[in-house]
Amino acid sequence: MGRLDTQELVIDVPGRASGRVLNLCLAPGQRWGVLGPNGAGKTTFLHTLAGLKAPRSGEVHLDGKPLARLNRRRVAQQLGLVFQERQDGFPATVRETALIGRHPYLSPWRMEGGYDLRIMHAALARMDVAHLADRLVSTLSGGERQRVAIATVLTQSPTIWLADEPTNHLDLHHQTAVMELLAEQAAAGSAVVMCLHDLNLAARWCDHLLLLYPDGEACWGPCSQMLELSALEHLYGQRLATADIDGAPVFVPVR
Amino acid sequence: MSDADLVHSVAPRHWWRSLGVPLGILSLAALLAMLFSLSVGSASLSLMDVWAVLRGEGDALSQTLVLELRVPRTLAAFATGGLLAVAGALMQVLLRNPLADPYVLGLSGGASVGALVAMLAGMGGMVISGSAFAGALASTLLVFGLAHGTGSWTPSRLLLTGVVVASGWGAVITLMLAISPAERLPGMLYWLMGDLSYARTPWPPIALLAIVCVLVMPLGRSLNVLARGPLQAAALGVAVRPLEWTIYISASLLTAMAVTTAGSIGFVGLVVPHMLRLVVGNDQRLVLPACALAGGTLLVLADTLARTLIAPEQLPVGVITALLGVPTFLYLLYRSR
């Protein structure tokens, strides 16, 4: 089981004097959405949860143990991160790219075996990119690359999913497909945390929300309490209109 | 994709098929190149003669020629080429920049200045080698220290520091050539373009090449992950900073040893890894040993040509590596997808 706790955590956003102390519990089965305007620290928060960025103060605990003192390879077997930005320094095929998700499980001398390849292939098929397996990633469209990135984390099969704008570049159908995948992971006992720009995806697919304000303030709680029109208008500095469609609230910016 | 394709692509990849076949072909090529290098020269021997000498037979003249002159030089050429190519491949992953090369980072500049100072002072072979080694390591520390600065270093900062330090060394070298007495100039110029006739015993570079290949092999998959950026690598459980240090120090040692053995031979470290990437793909577990073999083969062939084309005069081997490598590389680049 994967469970993340933040204890007296203050994330380190450059140029910000201080920030709200975060005491969150991200439990298995929960789907957290992180919302906030540009520069509010969503990505910093996610990287801090993953142990890739040191917090200004406080600690992140993975299953009750401080993350910073755990073996990185062990952490990588439990915790997967979908990055918002990716580098491809050298040309690599989709197959090779997805296969690096198995890295944390293999000892230095071992090659990837049939088991790893089966997991990788199932992940490619799940993300609808199996037909691109032999293509170079650099020749793919933005949305296809995003799906390859998610397939890579699926190959890593973590019990904690941290996804930084997982629906970036995706068409409407694949946005829904990715959200279904994340919901499925949560239903199977994973903790899922995703940074989102789309309020409507958050309202439909998350059960908990963390709102990050540009001044470092933050508030969090179950979705039903957080989706207050006035709070969201304050968060984005934008007037919104809302209506219920298909059982979930929908927010539209208005002039 | 049909079901048959799916089953095929999911079948386990056998290590001997993905690694064994290309490495086998390259080993064979290396062996042939070395035999060729042993048999040609001022006095040509047939392959049978060479084989006889290697088995401990043959006449005394052939024995001296092959065992005391050609074998050490061929082995030294092989080791130097291998060291340079592996160092180049490592640097390219470290800096995630296809233009990275041990020489771009100022290593050969430092080594050259060291060697030229020793030559200007009228010193002999061992001192020149030692001085070159010291110059390469000093340059490594200088570049790394400066790139580190007061903050953390990034690939682009390290690359820029290296390039600037290298051009500084370039100016010092030109200055030294300008003020050197005329009779010392040819030796200096040959050293600067690479010259294996300085090679003494081939065993230190060969041993270093073997050791580094064995040590780096288990790091191959981590290097594959690091090539996708330090954050992605850290997220997949790679200890990024220790790995980067290991690569930098190994690549520097390899280059220092190569420069000490054969002077400054450009081009091998840049081109051989790219050629191999175009042909065998980007898996460092295959690219690194393949670099050792292909770099060695290229330099053995180049050195053979260098000492036979206008015999009894010798050409600087760096000229030949460039003349062989440039068209091959351009051709591979042209037809790659």
UniProtKB/TrEMBL annotation, chain A:
Q: Key word ATP-binding present in the record?
A: yes
Report domain ABC transporter positions. 4-239
Q: Does the keyword Phosphoprotein apply?
A: no
Keywords of the record, alphabetical order, are: ATP-binding, Nucleotide-binding
Q: Which Pfam families match?
A: ABC_tran
Task: Show the PROSITE patterns listed in the entry.
Answer: ABC_TRANSPORTER_1 (PS00211), ABC_TRANSPORTER_2 (PS50893)
* SUPFAM superfamilies in the cross-refs: P-loop containing nucleoside triphosphate hydrolases (SSF52540)
MF term (GO), any: ATP hydrolysis activity
InterPro entries xref list: AAA+_ATPase (IPR003593), ABC_transporter-like_ATP-bd (IPR003439), ABC_transporter-like_CS (IPR017871), P-loop_NTPase (IPR027417)
Q: What is this protein called?
A: ABC transporter ATP-binding protein
Which organism is this protein's natural source?
Vreelandella rituensis
